[in-house]
Amino acid sequence: MSARRIAYRHTIEYEVVNTSNLFHPQNWALLSAGRIEDARRFVVVDGNVEKHHSAAIREYFAYHHVEAKIVVFPGGEENKTLDHYLTIAHELDAFPIHRRDEPIIAIGGGVLTDLVGYVAASHRRGVPYVKVPTTLMGYVDASIGIKTGINFNGNKNRLGAFHAPHMVLLDKSFLKTLPHRHILNGVCEIVKLAVIKDPLLFQMLETHGAQSVEAHFQDEQGGVILDRAIQGMLEELETNLFEEELARKVDFGHTFSYGLETRHETHLLHGEAVLLDILISTLIARRRNLLSDEETDRIFRLTDALGFELDASILDPRLLWASLTERTYHRNGLQRVPMPRSIGDCVFLNDVRADEIESAVKTLEDRIGIKHEII
Ligand SMILES: NC(=O)c1ccc[n+]([C@@H]2O[C@H](COP(=O)([O-])OP(=O)(O)OC[C@H]3O[C@@H](n4cnc5c(N)ncnc54)[C@H](O)[C@@H]3O)[C@@H](O)[C@H]2O)c1
Is the CB of 131 under 6 A from ligand 1? Predict the structure, then answer.
């Protein structure tokens, strides 16, 4: 037998750019990632974003003499499906673009950028794309990494690929029209980062978080919080873009949430499931003396102050255990559960037990109550 070993190194580079007035004709950011002369762009826009920016988007491309095919996509987790993937793939096939210098443009929330990213990853085995997040979840999390995907066979993100965007364009003014519930949904990912790796971000949230939530992060402090959260996220991603290291701080809040959001897809948002997971994990960490009483109380006080209305009634310990078991496959055989050690530091546990989860659920039920209604 003879063998030949192939090794090919590939550098991933993409820019995360802060911008404003994205559709102003003098703002070139949206076109800067590809060629502009005699060019075409395949653009997918979230339906709720289109409602507010329909004319501006069309005028922008017309002004630059770029032939744009604009496809409107309905946001929402229920649309992150193979059917919608195929619809977008068909639309793209009917509007040929140059393989290298006419990037697809994805404007929307995490559902849209994940799904369109997956189309970009698979069309001709990979074409460039630009992400423009319009939800807070997209802004601080989904858009700035390289994961793409769709839900499949009852499982979240079961089909997908790592496919880096050419560029991520951050314009926080999109958040002005985002419903309050979706602002809070994105805040859950900021709380995650604060608890697991950034005590200063935690303090910022304590001091200004509620006010920034009310202002949809258009206030100055809101901008500082967003920048800090993105910086923290990028620090974690940059050294582990392809998740070769499976023990990841950014998976804090993403162990038990997987089962919750899968079972309760119709009424529980991703961030809401993550926050419930954060609180369960906080209570497990308290029982193991990784967190003090005071630190535990600070985490609960912060969630109160930010205005979350939580309901523990969906916290079935067997579901949470099944979720941990599923995540153990995802993490290649070890639990690798990120847990806070003090606020701003992290350890990884491989020995979380079913009885600890059950006890954390009981305590959480006592602390936040069972409302018998969806959150
Ligand atoms: N790829 C990643 O690394 C990553 C990370 C985190 C989350 N995600 C994924 O992100 C998804 C959730 O993203 P999401 O919360 O943005 O959901 P979403 O894309 O469904 O958007 C939420 C809602 O907001 C609406 N919307 C979007 N922008 C708006 C705006 N500016 N004004 C008014 N309404 C607007 C949408 O139409 C939708 O109804 C999940 O599927 C999750 O798996 C991916």
Answer: no
- Distance CA(122)–CA(111), nearest Å, equals 17
Q: Which of 17, 167, 163, 178 is nearest to 108 (CA)?
A: 178
At 371, the pLDDT band (50, 70, 90 cuts) reads low
172 is catalytic: no
What's the pLDDT band for 312 if we cut at 50, 70, 90?
A: confident
Q: Which of 80, 85, 111, 260 to mutate to test the pocket of ligand 1 (most atoms within 8 A of CB)?
A: 111
pTM over 0.90: yes
Q: Which atom of ligand 1 is nearest to the CA of 79?
A: 20
Separation CA 297–CA 304 (nearest Å): 10
Of the candidates 97, 239, 105, the residue with the CA atom closest to the CA atom of residue 169: 105
Rounded distance from Cα 113 to ligand 1 centre (Å):
8
Q: Considering only CA atoms, which of 85, 87, 131 is closest in space to residue 108? A: 131
Q: What is the pLDDT of residues 172-227, one digit of tens each?
A: 999 999 999 999 999 999 999 999 999 999 999 999 999 999 999 999 999 999 99
The token duo for 102 is 């006419």
Q: Cα(296)–Cα(224) distance, rounded to whole angstroms?
A: 25
Ligand 1 centroid from CA 109, angstroms: 3
- Ligand 1 neighbour 145 (Cβ under 6 A): yes
DSSP letter for each residue of 297-346: HHHHHHHHHHT----GGG--HHHHHHHHHHHHHHTTTS--EEEESSTT-E
Task: Please check the confidence at residue 163 and state whether its pLDDT lies above 80.
Answer: yes
Taking the centre of ligand 1 as the mean of its atom positions, its distance from the CA of residue 141, in whole angstroms, is 10
Q: Structural domains in the chain?
A: 15-176 (3.40.50.1970), 179-368 (1.20.1090.10)
Q: Which of 80, 131, 147, 172 is catalytic?
A: 147
Determine the distance separating the centroid of ligand 1 and the alpha carbon of 270, expressed in angstroms.
Answer: 9
Cβ of 110 less than 6 Å from ligand 1? yes
